[in-house]
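Need tokens for this chain, all 181 residues.
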Amino acid sequence: MVLRSLLLSVWLCLGLVQVAPLGAAPEPPPLGWEQVRRLERSLQLLGVNVLHSNRCARGLEGLYDHRITQVLLCENTMPKQPESHWNTLAHESVHVMQICRQALPLTRGLDQLQQKMLAATAPQEKLHILSAYPPEQRLYELEARWVANTMDPDAVIRLLERSCGPQRPALLITPGGQVLS
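Here are the structure tokens for all 181 residues:
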């Protein structure tokens, strides 16, 4: 328990994680189109194609297909606001990070952080995760929603680069729960 608290403190100091107070709804960071374009460029530099489509099914705003290394952003189903595009792109970027990390959750071994993520997630999102995803996918989806809703753009881009960049460790967190530097 003490080790996990220490690890969370390290992540907070590195700026890789920002935790909303328990019980408080996360405040989205102030965003503009430039942050969306920066995250798109970061993904493209890592070899992930970002495709914009006006022909998505109703209810779909975006998805990441790891088989073809492509993020799809649905222009016809998303509001034309940078916050909506950022949220979807950041969410799909977390799924990219999870695949870069050998399909491991970003918070593997950090149960305390996972509990804070769950507490900071709006009830309707929790209900959606529980009803739409099988148990083995719920943590991945919770991470993606939490990062997209709570982390500032610079932190998301740093986490993407650490997770998928050429100098990345095989894991950011070891099976024993230690954060690699």
